[in-house]
Amino acid sequence: MSYEPPTPPTTLATEIVNTLNESDPEQLRDVATYAEALAEHKEREARLEESADQEEGEERLDDLPDDVPAKATITIKEINDNRYYYWQWREGDSVTSKCKGPVNPDE
Which residues lie in Acidic residues bias regions (predicted)? Predict the structure, then answer.
């Protein structure tokens, strides 16, 4: 083991490096444990989202209205305590929305 302090990755923000350098060994171990768990969680969420997007993309082709482009995404908006699905897509500098229908409360 070297007596020199480790060199931080260049991808880490300076404020994170400074905070870590000011931390005691116990805090650093806690940060390492948390960071590893958080990374695994985010990777799992990304895989699930990618899988859902692929399935949604397959479903959307059948469900897509003629006046909604294929690049549109589905979002949920709440209006007057009611939730609705909306198709949204970008047209130049603006975002266009079209109501798809109410969100089923059983979902």
Answer: 51-66
What is the DSSP-derived secondary structure letter of residue 12?
A: S
Residue pair 79/68 in contact (Cβ under 8 Å)? The answer is: no
Q: Which helix (H) or strand (E) holds 63?
A: helix 25-63
Contacts of 91 (CB under 8 A, 6+ apart): none
Q: In what order do the strands lie in the sheet with 82-91?
A: 73-79, 82-91, 94-102
Provide the pLDDT for residue 104: 77
Q: DSSP secondary-structure letter at 107?
A: -
Among 80, 78, 72, 79, smallest CA distance to 97 is for 72
Q: Is the dihedral of CA 38, 40, 46, 52 positive or negative?
A: negative
